[in-house]
Amino acid sequence: MQNHMKYSALLLLSLLPGFAAAETLPNLDARFETSQCEVPCKHPVKREWLMLRGENQVELRDANANHSDLWQWQDDTLDYVYLMHGQQRAIDYTSIDLRLLGIGASENKWQALAKLVTSSELASLEKKPGQPYEKMATEIYQGKLNGVETKLTWIPALQIPLQVEYRYPKHVVTVKMVERYQGKLPVEKTTAKQLQAYQHVDFVDIGDMEHDKHAVAWLAEAKDAPGVHVHPHEHAEHHEHEVN
User: Fold this and answer.
1) Which of 40, 112, 229, 235 is deepest in the core (most CB within 10 A)?
2) Which residue has the higher pLDDT, 42 or 36?
């Protein structure tokens, strides 16, 4: 598999002295909560999820889920892997696959996944100093993003919001970091070495597996994998941890 070969190369590169990724985001392992509520808010719908972020990759995983989304930014290219940890299987998507599925693969997409907000979005908002968080400075950003009233508490040292609030006419969406892990994690972070041990299939090859009963059985478990349960040429909606 083309992406499986890439992981082997990345593993070898990471062992070389002086190797450094192009992206320089600080490592971050944290638990987030996304809530949505109609106005006036009485019964918010909440969802907890994990962000496990390295310099050039971010793994997103719903709390208690047995699968996760692994996004990698290398050489101005965004790749995605849908990981099925129970089965030790992986579906690999190239940037071309992502564009064909209508998901996008630009640097803005990467920033929205890894930082929850793009640099250009931050620059468009008004900024003022905020209250310290764990002895780190914060900044308060306010204004409109895509016509939506937005208030964001940003932690420059972590390159992540502490909280983002989007106020729509009839509902409010809030994303907040509720815990930053600095020791033991609630789940195991996926490494390049672990990826090598998984059985990989390229997304583009899935259409040729519809008559393979064994493949159909495990693919049926990939309920959230983009494009897997629709016609290969149709666009699929992808449920992500990023917000509008």
Assistant:
1) 112
2) 36
